[in-house]
């Protein structure tokens, strides 16, 4: 390691140190003085010096570190233009701005300094002139030390997060993310309890359900073959276990749980809005204007800044819509490919010589299809980001926030379709468009579409959801944490100096710089990835939750780990995020509200269409034994299974040679799941009766759920009265001071009216 050089722009660098603290560190490869990269580097550093930035150059092996510190007048301008926005922050330094604001301002100036658009820092990093740029971690003193004690350890995983300290170290945007994640996790606890109770109710009645008992004893009920060639007839009793498992998720508590989760989603969002309003008020950011701050930073960086106006192009918007529609069509096509895979693999499994696999062909096909779906999710996630970035660049948003919002909507839309398109097929189309024996719907005129199990399709949906959710949460967390951990360990192992001497907060500048350099890089949308992961999880927790009541429990357990893993990753494995101001979670709130509305619609359809709740209800009160007088102690669902199966004459098969009768000879009739006449196979009266009841249920359920959501939203105000009163009081004091008067006694702004 060596200092210095005799270049003209460095003559005064070591005369200034400001207690040896630096706002940002630039890193470049060691190159010859006459190289093209060195020339560009000198021009950029000279541009910073013209703005009176102080720079310290330190050569360390193959890297050159540049410590950068901004002059105090930059921060004085920031305070003057925005009327001291950090007045409530305990971490203010000698320039009267917080450390987070200082880093944010310096970051903005560094990335907007240059002789032209192609000479700015991000382009210089792309060209290899600089290798990277980052602010320094400081976990040995101040809020960093408090974070280590209260946040970055497993002993505090059940404790309240130190949001104030997180804000003081990472800024408001990161603090709001963890505040939202903590609130979401707390609210998951009652949902997890109710979902577990519904599951346990089904578990208690695992073997005593009337429907399960009928299926388990149906040894003489012969079902039609599940494929065309070399597939035998089979007794309904073979699916005894499947029927019992179905009752775990499709029982009397399903409707209640779906309605509960619709209310839960609304209450969660409304209470979060209140908590967010309190945080923004405490931080004096309730009326903060992001556009005003951006303009202030532009003027601080360049007093001659020319205002860039908002623009809109209908042609560009049309092309973007076409691009989004094309991408969605591709994703839906991938979902169709997964359907074809399941159809083909089911036949392959049925023909397998392995008896266990052939007997469980449907379940094995569902499991393998779910794993393949997860693999497509992993692959398409990367492609979705690339396409979204391209579309955002083509859209040309004016500000970073506009770009972030546009990118968020596009990526979430693509990710949502990737995750849920196959689930929508399983929930609403599987077994309903496949036709009937003798007239099956076929893919490419050869393969039959799948059929639902006689006890319903909801177990297929449960298997699909549980596999994807469990794999996503476990593998994603492992990759998300272990990837930066292994990269950091490998880099420190290669660097003997860092392995021996690097300790965070070291008294030596170069050791601290080297340590931070060894940490994993963070990109500008790092926090976006965390939000996206949690919002996708929220979608799994609310959409189709009627088919998977354990989803809130899995999400709750995952989030307890997620908070600490994210904390450790952000502080000990990654370079410090550039802090950003914010007074809410941005476009994500609108995304969560949209998911909540979709969850109401979807869960209503799951109960009405996927579940057997409506057919059982119709049978119980219109066709079953309880409709007759003096029915005694008989269960009202007795005979339901036999009633829900239609009869097919085997002589009407498309080709008798396609059906094997090795197991059952002289069979003239077989049963299949549907409501059709045994004469001409047209829909029976009961089919239309159930269809009308399903339609009525969807309409009633969704209207009731939506009304409950609106009532809950009205009953729980978005902004607490205490926050409104505090804002009103501050306006009153300001106006009195403008008139030269002063209030006698401040009103208690914490008062909240109960009227």
Molecular structure report:
This protein has 755 residues and is an alpha+beta fold. It is built from 25 helices and 15 strands. The chain has a five-stranded antiparallel beta sheet with strand order 1-3-4-2-5, sandwiched between helices. Strand 9 and strand 10 form a beta hairpin. Helix 15 packs across helix 16. The longest helix is centred in the middle third of the chain and has 37 residues. The N terminus and C terminus are likely disordered.
Brief sketch in words of this structure:
A hairpin with a 3-residue loop joins β11 (442-443) and β12 (447-448). With 755 residues, the chain is an alpha+beta fold.
Low-confidence runs of at least 5 consecutive residues: 1-19, 503-507, 656-664, 747-755
Measure the end-to-end span.
70 Å
**Proportion of helical residues:** 55-70%
Assign an overall shape: elongated
Tally of helical segments: 25
* Secondary structure tally: strands: 15
Task: Supply Rg.
Answer: 32 Å
**Portion in beta strands:** 5-15%
Assign the structural class, choosing from mainly alpha, mainly beta, alpha/beta, alpha+beta, or little secondary structure.
alpha+beta
Sheet of most strands:
5 strands, antiparallel
Strand order of the largest sheet: 1-3-4-2-5
- Average pLDDT confidence is 81
Topology:
Elements: E1 2-3, E2 24-29, H1 36-50, E3 54-60, E4 63-69, H2 72-81, H3 99-111, H4 121-127, E5 132-134, H5 142-150, H6 163-170, H7 172-204, H8 210-216, E6 222-223, E7 231-232, E8 234-235, H9 240-249, H10 254-282, H11 290-301, H12 314-350, H13 355-359, H14 361-395, H15 400-428, E9 435-436, E10 439-440, E11 442-443, E12 447-448, H16 458-494, H17 496-501, H18 509-518, H19 526-542, H20 551-573, H21 587-610, H22 613-623, H23 640-644, E13 645-649, E14 659-660, E15 669-673, H24 685-715, H25 721-738
Parallel strand pairs: 7-14
Antiparallel strand pairs: 1-3, 2-4, 2-5, 3-4, 6-8, 9-10, 11-12, 13-15
């Amino acid at each position: 390691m060596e200092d210095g050089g005799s270049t003209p722009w460095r003559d005064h660098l070591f005369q200034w140190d400001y207690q040896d603290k630096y706002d940002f560190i630039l890193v470049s490869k060691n190159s010859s003085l006459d190289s093209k990269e060195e020339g560009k580097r000198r021009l950029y550093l000279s541009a910073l010096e013209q703005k009176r930035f102080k720079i310290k150059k330190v050569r360390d092996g193959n890297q050159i570190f540049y410590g950068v510190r901004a002059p105090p007048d930059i921060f004085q301008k920031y305070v003057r233009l925005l009327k001291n926005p950090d007045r409530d922050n305990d971490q203010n330094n000698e320039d009267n701005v917080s450390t987070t604001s200082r880093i944010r301002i310096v970051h903005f100036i560094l990335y907007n300094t240059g002789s032209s658009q192609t000479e700015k820092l991000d382009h210089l990093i792309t060209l290899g002139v600089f290798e990277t740029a980052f602010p320094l971690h400081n976990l040995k003193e101040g809020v960093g030390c408090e974070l280590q004690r209260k946040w970055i350890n497993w002993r505090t995983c059940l404790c309240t997060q130190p949001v104030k300290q997180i804000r003081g170290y990472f800024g408001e945007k990161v603090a709001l993310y963890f505040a939202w994640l903590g609130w979401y996790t707390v609210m998951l606890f009652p949902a997890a309890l109710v979902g577990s109770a519904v599951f346990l109710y089904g578990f208690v009645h695992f073997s005593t359900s009337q429907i399960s008992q009928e299926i388990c004893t149906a040894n003489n009920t012969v079902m039609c073959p599940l494929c065309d060639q070399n597939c035998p007839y089979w007794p309904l009793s073979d699916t005894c276990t499947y029927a019992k498992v179905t009752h775990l998720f499709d029982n009397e508590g399903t409707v209640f749980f779906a309605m509960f989760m619709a209310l839960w989603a609304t209450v969660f969002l409304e209470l979060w809005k209140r908590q967010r309003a309190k945080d923004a008020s405490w931080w004096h950011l309730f009326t903060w204007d992001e556009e005003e701050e951006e303009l202030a930073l532009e003027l601080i960086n360049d007093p001659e800044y020319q205002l860039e106006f908002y623009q809109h192009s209908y042609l560009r918007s049309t092309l973007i819509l076409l691009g989004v529609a094309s991408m969605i069509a591709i994703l839906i096509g991938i979902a169709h490919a997964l359907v074809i895979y399941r159809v083909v693999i089911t036949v392959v499994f049925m023909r397998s010589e392995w008896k266990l696999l052939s007997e469980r062909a449907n379940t094995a096909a569902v499991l393998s299809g779910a794993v393949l779906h997860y693999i497509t999710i992993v692959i398409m996630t990367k492609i979705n980001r690339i396409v979204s970035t391209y579309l955002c660049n083509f859209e040309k948003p004016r500000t970073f926030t506009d770009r972030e919002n546009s990118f968020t909507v596009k990526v979430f839309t693509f990710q949502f379709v990737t995750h849920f398109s196959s689930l929508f097929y399983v929930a609403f189309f599987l077994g309903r468009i496949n036709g009937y024996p003798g007239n099956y719907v076929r893919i490419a005129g050869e393969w039959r579409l799948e059929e639902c199990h006689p006890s319903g399709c909801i177990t297929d949906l449960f298997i699909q959801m549980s596999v994807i959710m469990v794999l996503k949460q476990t593998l994603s967390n492992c990759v998300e944490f272990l990837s930066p951990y292994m990269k950091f360990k490998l880099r420190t192992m290669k660097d003997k100096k860092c392995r021996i001497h690097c300790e965070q907060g070291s008294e030596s500048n170069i050791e601290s710089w080297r340590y931070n350099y060894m940490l994993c890089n963070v990109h500008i949308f790092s926090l976006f990835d965390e939000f996206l992961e949690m919002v996708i999880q929220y979608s799994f927790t609310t959409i189709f939750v009627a088919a998977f009541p354990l989803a809130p429990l899995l999400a709750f357990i995952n989030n307890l780990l997620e908070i600490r893993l994210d904390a450790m990753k952000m502080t000990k494995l990654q370079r410090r995020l550039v802090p950003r101001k914010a007074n809410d979670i941005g476009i994500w709130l609108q995304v969560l509200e949209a998911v909540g509305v979709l969850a109401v619609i979807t869960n209503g359809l799951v109960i009405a269409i996927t579940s057997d709740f409506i057919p059982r209800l119709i049978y119980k009160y219109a066709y079953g034994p309880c409709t007759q007088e003096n029915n005694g102690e008989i269960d009202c669902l007795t005979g339901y299974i036999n009633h829900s199966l239609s009869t097919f004459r085997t002589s009407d098969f498309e080709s008798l040679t396609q059906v094997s009768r090795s197991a059952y000879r002289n069979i003239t009739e077989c049963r299949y799941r549907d409501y059709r006449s045994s004469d001409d196979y047209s829909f029976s009266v009961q089919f239309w009766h159930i269809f009308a009841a399903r339609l009525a249920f969807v309409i009633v359920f969704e209207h009731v759920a939506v009304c409950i959501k609106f009532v809950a939203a009205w009953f729980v105000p978005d902004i607490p009265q205490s926050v409104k009163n505090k804002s009103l009081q501050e306006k009153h004091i300001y106006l009195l001071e403008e008139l030269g008067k002063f209030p006698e006694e401040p009103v208690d702004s914490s008062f909240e009216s109960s009227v």
